[in-house]
Design goal:
Order of helices and strands: HHHHEHHEEH
Number of strands: 3
Structural class: mainly alpha
Helix content: 55-70%
Number of helices: 7
Largest sheet: 3 strands, antiparallel
Radius of gyration: 26 Å
Strand order of the largest sheet: 1-2-3
Strand content: 5-15%
């Protein structure tokens, strides 16, 4: 009789448990349990991924004034262009601002930004947007083009802020961490790095000991 393929989940019985003793060979009921368990885990994973995608908002969304500011921008977009075709295009840009930001970051490190730098980026964006909205109606194509320019500048500011904080972190000697906000879900987080800016053998020894303790 052919041996059944090994499974990551075994049905334990008689006190035998996976990873320790010998597991009993699953019968038909055990196989059905494994199938149902596998489907359950798959559904849970898909749900988790879906929730993660739903929570992905973009760094600027984590700023306290974002909702109020962008609500104003969206509700007044119909007053900014003589051409009716600009209105849905501009509205879509504003509605998808946060999700599009996450798509455009393209970072090889986690998107985590300090509150100070988030405030700097947000103030720069709001200033540009407020100036744009102070003008009267614009000729066709101008308003959405300016929105795209502000969006691109915002992406670059966020990228630079995140990378600059990482570089500054590595200028310390040994283990160092700083408080951040996760751009994925706006929760408090922190970044830990190992700095190589040690000037003496004693500092290096302390830094390595700290690293070993951290690990």
């Amino acid at each position: 009789m052919e041996a059944e393929p090994a499974s990551a989940v075994v049905r334990c019985g008689g006190g035998a448990c996976a990873g320790g003793g010998t597991a009993a060979r699953p019968g038909a009921g055990g196989r059905r349990w494994m199938v149902r368990g596998g489907l359950g885990r798959a559904m849970a994973l898909l749900l988790c991924l879906g929730l993660t995608a739903a929570l992905a908002r973009g760094c600027l969304h984590c700023h306290r004034d974002f909702s109020e500011k962008f609500s104003f921008y969206r509700h007044h977009v119909n007053l900014k262009s003589w051409w009716v075709g600009d209105i849905p295009v501009s509205g879509s840009l504003l509605t998808d601002w946060s999700q599009d930001t996450m798509k455009e970051l393209h970072l090889a490190i986690p998107a985590e930004i300090t509150r100070e730098k988030l405030g700097q980026v947000a103030n720069a964006v709001y200033q540009k947007m407020d100036q744009l909205y102070q003008g009267k109606m614009y000729f066709p194509g101008y308003f959405p083009s300016e929105l795209r320019a502000i969006f691109r500048e915002q992406v670059h500011l966020i990228q630079n802020a995140i990378i600059e904080s990482r570089i500054n972190c590595q200028r310390h000697c040994g283990i160092f961490q700083y408080e951040t906000i996760s751009c994925i879900n706006c929760t408090d987080s922190h970044v830990v790095c190992f700095g190589y800016n040690c000037e003496s053998s004693a500092q290096w020894e302390t830094a390595v000991q700290g690293l070993l303790l951290y690990m």
